[in-house]
Write a structure and sequence with these properties.
The structure is a single chain. This protein is an alpha+beta fold. Strand 8 and strand 9 form a beta hairpin.
Length: 209
């Protein structure tokens, strides 16, 4: 397995393990993170582990035009059940994503180091947040890396039923108008599959990227 040095570089994708691990170590400097995302690589690790860099095969993706919106979600959208904003509370969104309890997950992969790194990317204009509000309360959100033609989704949270899905749908509809051609969902979840995302071979994803 490849151990990164201070050099801002990654090994060839072909060296990725069957589990999807490409390398260990390095740091979360903005330059390294942006290089990673531009090459289909992302960090994912727990607080007691070194930084682990992934490029899974297959890869979960969503073309904006393939977004599926259920009848019940369409009703919520028509009623404007929630208010949606962008980039008004990035730090609160990433912190909420870090602490929310998820089924089958005992620990968070969004470490303090990760929070600080993505907040820095947000200040640089690369990391985007979507906030979902009920009155004045933040009840859901999504954040990710915006490469222009590709949006790399990182995490979402929901304190009310359908809040994160509501925000994600708003995000996809907005991305349709900005020239975004693909949403990188990284790994399969039933939640994302219900919205129209599906898996493709890594080489196909990289050709899109």
């Amino acid at each position: 397995m490849y151990l990164l040095t201070d050099e801002i570089a990654f090994p060839p994708i072909e060296e990725t393990s069957p589990e999807g691990i490409l390398a260990f170590g390095g740091d979360l400097k903005p330059e390294r993170l942006l290089l990673a995302y531009k090459n289909g690589i992302f960090p994912w690790y727990s607080h007691d582990e070194p930084i682990i860099w992934w490029s899974p095969d297959p890869r979960m993706i969503l073309f904006p035009e393939d977004l599926k919106v259920s009848k019940s979600m369409k009703q919520l959208l028509r009623r404007e059940t929630f208010k949606v904003t962008y980039n008004t509370a990035f730090e609160r969104v990433i912190q909420a994503c870090a602490i929310i309890q998820r089924p089958g997950q005992d620990d968070t992969w969004i470490t303090t180091e990760m929070e600080e790194a993505y907040i820095q990317l947000h200040k640089m204009g690369y990391a985007t947040s979507v906030e979902v509000w009920r009155d004045e309360k933040l009840v859901g959100g999504v954040y990710g890396i915006d490469l222009g033609h590709v949006f790399c989704g990182e995490s979402m949270f929901s304190l009310e039923s359908n809040a994160s899905k509501y925000g994600f749908i708003h995000l996809v509809e907005k991305l349709k108008t900005t020239g975004c051609q693909l949403i990188d969902c990284q790994m399969h979840t039933n939640h994302l599959a219900s919205l129209g995302a599906y898996e493709v071979p890594r080489e196909v994803f990289l050709s899109y990227l």
